[in-house]
């Protein structure tokens, strides 16, 4: 009888304690909003430099650039860009440099001497020059990288100097280029967030493409990276079946995904191509207007489209290693097409490798991969690719 009473008490106390702990446990912090328009951080040399946004300056001289990422010609020598991960680098001798923007959409990071001499982060800089002064006299390297996802094309007006500085040749490209093809998981959508429920402003604040798995893999392999990725996009169907005419199959060739008429500037063939599509194809239910009755039918079409898509990438990047990155959480409807695609490429005589990811934590906004997930994916990719490039 005593035992029964004790069990009865425990049956009440344990759930109550659990509920109390759940109530008292602090919720993850929300992403900080709004993002400051300009933040400067001193580098390791601790030299005080000055950075401010000013109206477009006259008489500046453009530096030769190493540009990585899809782009189209804009006005007055500017570059129009929209795909994520766009970045440009230059070198100069002097104490001052400027970066020109026409952009009310994106976040940017500017690194001087790989951050040793300073770092600046910008949010929606507008039609302005970022003017940087007070650097140590001598030679400097500057890198300007977009870390947010564009919803439309914006203009990058280059890196410029005045008459007191001297231009140096553009930096030499790294020995390898890796192209990452994917969706929001590749972009790094809200990857720095610590919670799943987010506002639009919080997503903007928490997205940092430079901390997604692609740039991490490139850094580990002493390579550069190019991204052809977009949130919501799929290979044969987009998330929830929206804009069926704008899947990766039709958007991939474009310089600007929202402007099919824009001319695409020539870019370097990739040495490694990582394709990570399918989350949006299989991650939502069908609408009445879509042609698939079930995931089995979609899987068959996805397989055929994936093989054709990858063979196009082989033709554009001769000799490149084709890395197929499959998100295992979507099961056989996605995994079987990736297995068939790997087999087809190998039968064609191509070097191909399939990596199947385990179930991810997905604790960032709207169930997107967290920073820890991106670290995990980068580790798996680096481990798989490293033996192939030695």
TrEMBL record:
Gene3D superfamilies: Galactose-binding domain-like (2.60.120.260), SGNH hydrolase (3.40.50.1110). Coiled coil: none annotated. The keyword Transmembrane helix applies. It comes from the Bacteria. SUPFAM superfamilies: SGNH hydrolase. The chain crosses the membrane at residues 7-25. Pfam families: CE2_N (PF17996). This is Lipase. Residues 67-171 form the Carbohydrate esterase 2 N-terminal domain. The keyword Lyase does not apply. GO terms for molecular function: carboxylic ester hydrolase activity. Keywords: Membrane, Transmembrane, Transmembrane helix.
